[in-house]
Amino acid sequence: MIEHILKDHVFIDFGSEIHFGSDQMYMCYPIRFPTVSFQLMSTALLEEIADRIRITEGFKPMHPMDEYTEDTCDSSGWYDFFYEIHDLNDGNAGLCIEFIVVSDKAEDNEELYTIDLTEDERTAMYNRMDEQCRGYLGKGCDELLAEARMRMEEED
Predict the structure, then answer these.
(1) What's the number of domains the chain is made of?
(2) Could you tell me if residue 41 is inside a domain?
(3) Burial of 12 (0-12, 13-18, 19+ CB in 10 A)
(4) Domain-embedded: residue 138
(5) Which domain holds residue 119?
(6) Is 111 part of any domain?
(7) 125 φ, ψ to 5°?
(8) Angle between helices 119-137 and 141-155 in degrees, nearest 10
(9) Residue 155 located in a structural domain
(10) How far apart are CA 3 and CA 123, in angstroms?
(11) pLDDT in single tens digits along all 156 residues of the chain
């Protein structure tokens, strides 16, 4: 079921730039790893999830839902959604979809939120990104991560 939901509601925005880079985390010492970041198209499902997250934080949603109407929403802005794959753990899938609030009128303008994913959702999300990259770029996520690793090593 997850695969079907993602297939209908999650799309890479190939009009935006795919970012190759590296990220870092600290355990006992810094560990760098290659990453590839995608901007996602804003869809009704992602917007609803973002609105619900913001409601739990005490903010108005940007779209009418539940008891919120056009008049009681903050419809002056939008959300930018991002997803990242990385070469840190098995599966290479990111732990969440991130979104940024873009609205001059919102108190949380430019705040970053996350839509946390379960292990099954991460796997399905990685497969969805791989499918789209193969279709539009002619190469899969593993090849994109190899390119990110090469760029990261060139920086060192």
Answers:
(1) 1
(2) yes
(3) buried
(4) yes
(5) 2-150
(6) yes
(7) -65, -45
(8) 90
(9) no
(10) 9
(11) 688 888 899 999 999 988 887 666 655 667 788 899 999 999 999 999 999 999 999 999 999 988 988 888 888 899 999 999 988 766 688 889 999 999 988 999 999 999 999 999 999 999 999 999 999 999 999 999 999 989 888 876
